[in-house]
Amino acid sequence: MSFVTFYGWEVEFEGDHHLRAEQEARSGRLYTMYHGTTVKSAQDIIQNGFRQSPDGMLGAGVYVSRDQKKAERYPLKSPVSDRVVLKLQVDCGKVKRIDTDNHPMQKTWHMQGYDTAWVPPNCGMKSVPSGLEEDCIWDPQRVEVTDIAVAPNTTLLAQLRQLISQRKSQSTSTRPSEARSGRLYTMYHGTTVKSAQDIIQNGFRQSPDGLLGAGVYVSRDQKKAERYPLKSPVSDRVVLKLQVDCGKVKRIDTDNHPMQKTWNMQGYDTAWVPPNCGMKSVSSGLEEDCIWDPQRVEVTDIAVAPNTTLLAQLRQLISQRKSQSTSTRPSGQGACNTCKTPNHAGHVVQPCWGCGENICTFMAKHICSVRP
């Protein structure tokens, strides 16, 4: 990870996701890591994904390392001819450092809202006599195989890489897309005609409770939104098209998930239930999201209305609301189009010297996709 500080903000170059073992992973970032396994297990992991180890030094989870040399030692009792090292892309989420024996959170870190436990190298833990770095990722969905780092021979290397290629092709066409933290997404909300008018004019309000607790319930699946409100006739149903700033996203994909209603208390802005995840409490199997802060949800259009007259009326309300929002911004030059903050004194906007995207000196940070 390369970055350069400039006028109080920093440009981060995301082209290199590899951390040295002694560097602590930054929460919510993607990193290159490794996992040593047998040939048969490697094939299974590539085709079906990782599964949690039921227990270990850091409890349940997927055990990986940023140190390829450590991964090459595993499985400990397997001959070299049956060892494969998978190269991974890992979304660390929220990271907890475990660097002492009998750490109070050594096996309970996930219950405290963390996604990854990290044991730094040479930290002096007797339970890690090798002194080599390791990580435990709670959710297998955060770990993706991207390549083969080590294989017993070139023939097997080619076969495993072919499996990865096939899996990526299948995933592209069939896997539901998980919202990436901090991005804007199009979503939908089904409601009554009267409520649609109120939401457009006054904004969303939190539902006091629901499957995922308090928040604004939306879906990326328009067909799901069209079913709501469940007891309202079609003549009284409207589907609002939204722009949603997801913020930090927590995946909830099991019944009685430990963070099912407490995700916001753990620092997340959005809870996401993926489609067909097997939750009995989501009998339809359709995807849904719960956004804690109503300010993160903006109505941009009407996806479905009972008739063309009402469609035109609701779209006129949206247009009026946007005009009011523009006229009531802080005085001065309005909001900066780049950093979105009030532009009182004029902001300096210039192209990033890496990717060429416009950046403003008042931005907290800019993520660049091109290495300088």
UniProtKB/TrEMBL annotation:
Species for this entry: Coilia grayii
Family of the protein in this entry: Belongs to the ARTD/PARP family.
The protein's name: PARP catalytic domain-containing protein
PARP catalytic domain residues: 27-107
Pfam family name, one: PARP
InterPro entries documented for this protein: Poly(ADP-ribose)pol_cat_dom
